[in-house]
Amino acid sequence: MGYTNLNDTQVWRAGSCDAWRRTVLPLIQQGSGAVFRRIVGLSPRPGRAPGFEDVPDFGAAVRVPGLEHGTVVNAAPLKVLGARGEPNPASSYRFEYITGDSAGRAITATGAALFSSRPWRYGTRPVIAMAPSTQGVAQHCDPSHTCAIGLNAFYDKPLDAIIAYELPVILWFLAHGLDVVFTDYPRDPIAGIQYYCDSITAAKSLLDAVLASYQLGLSPEAPLGLWGFSQGGGATGWAAQLPDYAPTVRPQAAVVGAPPVDLFRVLDTVDGGLLTGVIAYAIAGLGASSVEMFNEISPVLNERGKRDVLKNITSCAGGSLLTSGYTSTASWTNSRKPLATILDDLPLVVAEFKKQKLGRIAPNIPVLLWGSQHDDVIPIEPIKTLRDEWSDKGAQLTWHESRAPRVPGRTGINHFGPYFRNLQKYSGWLMDRLV
């Protein structure tokens, strides 16, 4: 019973300076070079449609009844920025695999597997299964697409921007000699919309991506760690709670960062801030989960709300800042009430959010759970409740609360800042359990 507090003392681990060098320098060099070549016309600018030269295109998600989850359908080499040779070389692949939709029906999804070429001297090379944080729900925002692009702006309407902000974390693990697998998250085959807010489906898709990676050369005997922050924290939290879903996938530990435990609180917290656009992702994701939920939510929105939701779900997170930053969702509804208030009265939405809530099951692996005192996207109080629920159920739990100073303006810096500030601390905890 109870939990252990992660020591807040800053520890500079052996090899960290070299890992930072191998992470940052090639990313700056290759990323700036790619942007420069696009600006001067030496290489084509990526568009919103699939088919960018450095990213294999497998088409849209489709239903595949009867196929087994975790099966690879397609795979092709992927040119990941920062991992294209020395000093942080990796063999990288984008792949299409079988997972399930929100109702468990078999569909195709995409992800990536990156095999580090850095030496590993402690037995079998470990693997990090990463559930990425939100980058946008449109297909051109998928992490296995953006990791080959880095940064890109779209000047045709709606204004949009790709910002591959999980790429430094991926390269950090590669620089330490660990392999990395991540999912792009499943999306509805008909509407093409990601099942946003569905952490259970996201968790299963992450485990299925690991299964698929075994067919690409990943060792089933490799020590496996789960890593996720924000949207990804919800996915890894559920993956740690579902040991029976993929019995041959046996993670040894998980880092669950700032998970959206109480979705109503999250929607209320971001409303009117710079990240209001994620509420549009939630609305679209809920509607994609079932026709009944779509029919329950749709009458709530006025014409402006429908237009703004459409703009957001066809853009990446960078575009959503421009489209809906500091907008109140009260301007999206017929009643002029904020969406969080209205959704809280919709029975199907309430039932769905209740189903998605973490804490009913205790993980059977060591878990590092963390949140931020001044988080302006995902409030820490529900995460503390999850901490107490998991520890009361006997979970092997380590807790850390980031106390970084609050940055005013509701910009999301209080959400993302502690993630990168504590990268060495949290990744070190996980790597210690994979050796």
Automatic annotation (TrEMBL):
- Official protein name in the record: Triacylglycerol lipase
* PANTHER family attached to this UniProt entry: LIPASE 5, PTHR34853
GO biological processes: lipid catabolic process
Annotated GO molecular function terms are: triacylglycerol lipase activity
User: This protein's superkingdom?
Assistant: Bacteria
Species source reads: Corynebacterium suranareeae
